[in-house]
């Protein structure tokens, strides 16, 4: 019995439809394909978002508004699901994850088969760290600067395996951090028992951006003197650099790269990915059974070595497919704008923000001024005010910002592609006025 007939009880043939040939009414696909934008057209980009103009949005990194191409793709898939959910899913679930992974690889580098699809950074971190093959004597090195998702994922894995977690500090004063200081502290934290180094590319606690390539080179130097079994895996939570920095992720030097795609990338809410080297995937196990071609293996129609490793590692089950399947539109939008243009623009707005804050005597800036060690987040304190109070006062004046959700909390701006220089000046003026209040 053929797979389609077995799954649905019908004799219909499974259609290997391409990403751009969904059979939909009313010309929806044609309209979707017409969504284009010129390189570095920032004012045009802003018009693609339904964000209210009643506020200046300096916290969109938390959860992106859907730009029109992404929203249109979501609506297209939703209409098709609502019209005929069984057929629409069965016609695409065996092929579409691979096409989405290919779209991701076109944007980020690497190859599609190396990419697993997830629902968030947290899910990706949990998938990687829960599946790592570790022994009770093994040591995991992480930093004190990581988000709780890394902390707890590693803590849970250590509890199940007996592996030990060592937390190290890469810097004391984020505003004065230097590359050599980070490398020195990392090297000192690695021991003969270290099998995993887990870090965060851009710290949402301070705005510090780690020199991942230099850290990878250091780890590779240590690995050169180790056996295959003792090699250190370098794992990166990359969410706050992904969608900003003009990097080929496969050339960063890390083994695993984990990121949500509903932040700086402007992807559909509830989407994310994991990229890993082929050799790194071999050192982890799947945690949640996948669908797509792994289902084919379970049915007995193919063997596991015929399944792309990323697809095998992608959690199965029923997701909000209209969101996941719309993800390629977010990558396409960024490529149309130009990755180098995106990086330059975000660094420009963040530099404007940092320079303005640095001139205020009642403000302490924590994020490094140099783009080499910072990205799209700017953290600071206002003398005599709790960060949450700063956030509230600016919100009352029409500026949406945030405070860092850490034990040591700071006020935080996140200038992004939907902002302009005038908005930054207004936000800085509001902070300057706090000295008089």
Automatic annotation (TrEMBL):
Signal peptide: none
Keyword Transferase assigned: yes
Aminotransferase class V domain boundaries: 67-403
SUPFAM superfamilies (alphabetical): PLP-dependent transferases (SSF53383)
Keywords, comma-separated and alphabetical: Aminotransferase, Pyridoxal phosphate, Transferase
Catalytically driven reaction(s): (sulfur carrier)-H + L-cysteine = (sulfur carrier)-SH + L-alanine
One Pfam entry name: Aminotran_5
GO MF, any single term: transaminase activity
Cofactor(s) listed: pyridoxal 5'-phosphate
InterPro entries (alphabetical): Aminotrans_V_dom, Aminotrans_V_PyrdxlP_BS, PyrdxlP-dep_Trfase, PyrdxlP-dep_Trfase_major, PyrdxlP-dep_Trfase_small
Record family assignment: Belongs to the class-V pyridoxal-phosphate-dependent aminotransferase family. Csd subfamily.
Protein name as catalogued: Aminotransferase class V-fold PLP-dependent enzyme
Upper classification of the organism: Bacteria, Pseudomonadati, Pseudomonadota, Gammaproteobacteria, Alteromonadales
